[in-house]
Amino acid sequence: MEAELKGLLSDLQSLKDSLPDPSHQISVGKIQARLEHLKLGNAQRSKIKDMSAEVVDSNPYSRLMALQRMGIVDNYERIREFSVAIVGIGGVGSVAAEMLTRCGIGRLLLYDYDKVELANMNRLFFRPEQVGMTKTDAAVQTLSDINPDVVLESYTLNITTVQGFEIFMSSLKNKSFRPDKEGTGVDLVLSCVDNYEARMVVNQGCNELNQTWMESGVSENAVSGHIQLLVPGETACFACAPPLVVASGVDERTLKREGVCAASLPTTMGVVAGLLVQNTLKYLLKFGNVTPYLGYNALKDYFPTMEMKPNPQCSNAACLERQKEYILAKPARDAAARAKMEAEAFVEPECLHADNEWNISVVDDSDVQDSSASSGALPEGLVHELPSADEFQKPPASAETTATPIDDLEDLRKQLEALNAA
């Protein structure tokens, strides 16, 4: 875009110089000024090599790195090492891509075959001037302006076709971004598609590659949605238990009807996208609890959650294979988890508190000694105004208290006799 604007400005300058009429030159000058304004508005920030926690207005990562300073995340800069694939750049997928871009994700792979339409303007992210562009190209255009540090890969294809599926699988296995990474070339796949066939294709591909992924969806009436974590072999895959069937008993294959327009609310899309990306960050950066399934009902503000185990009779052969591998590896995995827990239990804390600028320290109650009770000494210049409440105060000695117990009994007897006589 910037190169095109420079070319137009150069052509206009040549035209202006060749025009003899001053009024025409003024008109061309106005056009030049408008293009210069567009050029300035299209300016991008330069790439940043390292994330900094420095709190200055010019640092785009200062507020993200504050999560590390506050102890929420151990090392936020690790986010630059991760690759996330987003399948479906629609109402949920486009917003999820923007959130991850603003968070400074290392690499985004974007998949969609559709084009931007005016009918998409009720949603977030896309703009009217992008109508006619493919959604992936429009997304790259917007996201690269927001954060040029993110590596963006655009795939304009339909993954439900044979050729599209092959390209999809090949791109997930590509390790050019991180050659040392185990497994596939991506850390997580986010499914943001709106039809059953595409979800089943993502499910098939992730089961074959043993790739962890998250599924998301919004209902046809646009007032509910869900997100779901799927770990091949460990949790139910999409073929084991489709979320819509679990939640309402409706077969998703019956939803896509010719000539029927589904409702779409940017609010619901934004909520679901936010939940999806929040779960993604917790999974990648290892903080908080990663939810296995979270629903959202906008009418009742209800957020159901559940866990779904894999179905031993799943119709997906790759899912059954991953289940067998998970069961075989379970004893070793449980033993390692127990060893880690035992090691952590024997580690004694170095101190009871962290250093702080006020030099406040915390000590064990058992180590506290009451210096006033043991010595009674006070700092110089202070005196006891009242007797100590902890010390038993003995009454002063008197003649009455020196009497023997026998005399006291005799006096009591005489007093009783006097009372009886009266």
TrEMBL record:
Residues 61-315 form the THIF-type NAD/FAD binding fold domain. One of its GO terms (biological process) is protein ufmylation. GO terms for molecular function: ATP binding; metal ion binding; UFM1 activating enzyme activity. Keywords: ATP-binding, Metal-binding, Nucleotide-binding, Ubl conjugation pathway, Zinc. Residues 366-407 are annotated as: Disordered. CDD domains: ThiF_MoeB_HesA_family. Gene3D superfamilies: NAD(P)-binding Rossmann-like Domain. InterPro entries: D-isomer_DH_CS1, ThiF/MoeB/HesA, ThiF_NAD_FAD-bd, Ubiquitin-activating_enz. One of its GO terms (cellular component) is cytosol. It comes from the Eukaryota. Belongs to the ubiquitin-activating E1 family. UBA5 subfamily. This is Ubiquitin-like modifier-activating enzyme 5. It comes from Sesamum indicum (Oriental sesame). The gene is LOC105162200.
